[in-house]
Amino acid sequence: MTQTTTAPTSIITPTSTVLEARGISKIYPSGESTVVALRDVSVGFEAGRITAIVGPSGSGKSTLLNLLAGFDIPSSGAVLHLGNDLKSMPETKLASYRLAHFGFVFQNYNLVSILSAQENVELPLTLAGVPRAKRSQIATDLLKRVSLDKRMTHYPNQLSGGEQQRVAIARALATNPSVLFADEPTGNLDSKTGRGILELLTEPMAESSNRTVILITHDMDVASRAHRIVNIRDGSLEG
Amino acid sequence: MRGLLRRPVRTLLTVLGIVVAVASMVVFLSLGEGFRRALGQEVGNIGPDIQVTLEGSDSSSIFGSPIPDVPLEFVGKLQAAAAEFGITQVAPYLLTPRGSLSGSGYLISGNPFESIALNDLYPSLKLGQGRFLGAADKTALVAVVGSQAAKTANLKLGDELRLNRADRYKVVGILQRGDGFTDSFIFVPFSALQKTLGVSDKATGITVKLRDSGDARKTADALKIRFPELRSQTQGDVLKVLDRAIAIGDAFRFGISLISLIVGGLAVANTVMMGVYERTREFGVIRAIGAKPSFVFQLVVLESLLLAIIGGIGGIFIGYLGTLAVNFAVRDLVSVAIAIVTPRLALLAIGIAAVLGLLSGLLPARTASRLVITQALGRN
Question: Which of A15, B41, B155, B180 gives a 20 to 30 Å CA spacing to A64?
Answer without folding.
Answer: A15
